[in-house]
Amino acid sequence: MSKPSVVFVTGNANKLKEVQKLLSNVTKYEIINKNLDLEEIQEASLEEIARKKILQAVALLPKGQRIVVEDTALGFDALNGLPGAYVKWFLKKMSLDELVKMLEPFEKKTGEAITTVAYSDENGDIKIFQGITKGKIVKHRGNLDFGWDAIFEPLAEEGNTEALTYGEMTKEFKNGLSHRSKAFKLFEQYLVDN
């Protein structure tokens, strides 16, 4: 008999690989992927964005499926959390260098990387999990293939004693301290317990 599945809704191949690795200890479910065209919700509340995203996915997929979505944000402390959930749109209009330059007038160059995971079980009950990693916004260093990874340097107290940006880290090291790994560890524990 095959295992029940959890459908991870994403069109981002890098994100899919990362999440499959993060959930590799969940053995009672098979993590499968569905690329759905979900509306990009514009909202300040990360939890509300994730909740609306999961409701869209539930409406588009067959009833009774376990579904998970995630949304990631990068907030600058000097800008009261902006660009936040809008970082994807900022990066469509500007380079990483221009994004970092936004902080030039400010002394504070810190921020938070946040992933919010929304899960709907087979009954449609929704749970929200969030992971946050604090860091510094720096000139880009390392691999430029994954969004804003190259400009985010997690703080030493987050476990980044070598002062690397996400873009300079191995996938294994990044998965040990990233905002996404923190959110998916909470989700993983929930799946194991339920």
TrEMBL record:
> What InterPro entries does the entry give?
ITPase (IPR027502), ITPase-like_fam (IPR029001), RdgB/HAM1 (IPR002637)
Where would you find this protein in the cell? Cytoplasm; Nucleus
Q: What reaction gets catalysed by this protein? A: XTP + H2O = XMP + diphosphate + H(+); dITP + H2O = dIMP + diphosphate + H(+); N(6)-hydroxy-dATP + H2O = N(6)-hydroxy-dAMP + diphosphate + H(+); ITP + H2O = IMP + diphosphate + H(+)
Q: GO molecular function, one example? A: nucleotide binding
Where does it mainly reside? cytoplasm
Q: Where does ITP bind?
A: 10-15, 53, 71-72, 146-149, 174, 179-180
Any one GO BP annotation for this protein: deoxyribonucleoside triphosphate catabolic process
Q: Which domain of life is it from?
A: Eukaryota
UniProt xrefs under Gene3D superfamilies: 3.90.950.10
Which enzyme class? hydrolase
EC number(s) of the enzyme?
A: 3.6.1.66
A GO cellular component annotated for this chain's UniProt record is: nucleus
What the record notes about the co-factor is: Binds 1 divalent metal cation per subunit; can use either Mg(2+) or Mn(2+).
Sorted UniProt keywords = Cytoplasm, Hydrolase, Magnesium, Manganese, Metal-binding, Nucleotide metabolism, Nucleotide-binding, Nucleus
Q: SUPFAM superfamilies, per this entry? A: ITPase-like (SSF52972)
Cofactor(s) in the UniProt record: Mg(2+); Mn(2+)
UniProt: Mg(2+) binding residues = 40, 71
The task this protein performs is described as:
Pyrophosphatase that hydrolyzes the non-canonical purine nucleotides inosine triphosphate (ITP), deoxyinosine triphosphate (dITP) as well as 2'-deoxy-N-6-hydroxylaminopurine triphosphate (dHAPTP) and xanthosine 5'-triphosphate (XTP) to their respective monophosphate derivatives. The enzyme does not distinguish between the deoxy- and ribose forms. Probably excludes non-canonical purines from RNA and DNA precursor pools, thus preventing their incorporation into RNA and DNA and avoiding chromosomal lesions.
Name the family: Belongs to the HAM1 NTPase family.
Binding partners and assembly: Homodimer.
List the protein's name: Inosine triphosphate pyrophosphatase
Gene transcribed to yield this protein: HAM1
